[in-house]
Specification:
Layout (H helix, E strand, L loop, with lengths): L1 E5 L7 E4 L1 E2 L6 E10 L2 H9 L7 E2 L3 E9 L11 E4 L9 H4 L22 E3 L2 E5 L9 E5 L3 E3 L6 H21 L8 E4 L5 H11 L4 E5 L2 H10 L3 E4 L5 H9 L2 E6 L4 H10 E9 L13 H7 L2 E4 L7 H13 L9 E6 L3 H7 L7 E6 L2
Parallel strand pairs: 5-9, 12-13, 12-15, 13-14, 15-16, 16-17, 18-19
Antiparallel strand pairs: 1-2, 1-5, 3-8, 4-6, 4-10, 4-19, 6-7, 7-11, 8-9
Helix pairs in contact: 3-4, 3-9, 6-7
The structure holds zinc ion (2 copies).
The site of one zinc ion has 4 residues, from loops.
Length: 362
Amino acid sequence: MKASVVDGIGAGFTLRDVDIDAPRGSEVLVDVRACGLCHSDLSIATMGLGYEFPIVLGHELAGVVAAVGSDVVGVRAGDHVVGSLLQFCGRCVDCLSGKTFRCRYPEATARGAGEPPRLSMAGTPVGQMNGLGGFAQQALVHERQLAVVPEELPFAVAALLGCGVLTGAGAVLNTAKVQAGESVVVIGCGGVGLNAVNGARLAGAGAIIAIDLQREKLDRARAFGATHTVDAASGDPVAEVTRLTGGADHVFDFVGASAVTRQALEMVGKGGGLYLIGLGADDAVLEVDTVEMLTRQLHVHGVWMGSSTLPRDIPLYASMYLQGRIELDGLVSREIALHEIGKGYEALRDPSVARVVVTDLS
Ligand SMILES: [Zn+2]
Ligand SMILES: [Zn+2]
């Protein structure tokens, strides 16, 4: 089968013939129909981030089940599925407590050291990003990393559920548990931040304030349901949020740069929370005045994959989309072919582009 392979750090994406093994045990062979381009894939391709090469990236995948291993119970051939990089063992105390996003043994979804690789080129093993490898015609994935979705869901939309939607909407609904009427601030209105706007709308948030530096992104946030937008390039976002809310109940930082995160904390009202989701800079720090934290009764929460439970949340967002209760069509700005991934990432620099999705896998 054809796959877009990254041979080494900075080597870019190259279409190659890759051998894929038959499913064993709890594995599922998926015919990929769509895979979104997420920023994390590009970060691995350009910086490595501890991954081994060659590797097939792509972790926002949707497709149709072609075959299943002998131990698979929840997925059948022909099912439409969405993959997620959320890997969990299903047996540790966190998994058994319903917190699979805190699993202690995520590697339990990978093949053991003595087993042949899932992917290879002329006998050389090829890695898969977090057990997925969606930039390919087929993917061999552990059953626990897949959720079944309705067949009427378009593949390009379905693909986005596994990362951007799960992370953005999940931060609001699962981590912060936003209540009806509460105020929400979303800083950074890219593909993930827009899904926090979706989540805030579903939760019935009162004010939904979107902040960004780019006009196009703010316009899109308003189309997704933001009640107010603040252009951080032309004003003081802290003063504006304080004027609108008196201090927000929940502030979601999708940027992750020191200066932005500090401003985000200043926007939080008494008893409110700051949620850290963005990975903009790997040296970002947040200095806090402990007396201020105490007297304002603030909490700061690091969020991983929207504190999501895959088999519950993916079908939930799919049905909310099909009922017209969340906006996802506006996220799919451009559809490309498997050999165009490098160009697709270039297109993402344009602020008018929300998400690029591979849908031509011929
Ligand atoms: Zn992602
Ligand atoms: Zn576990």
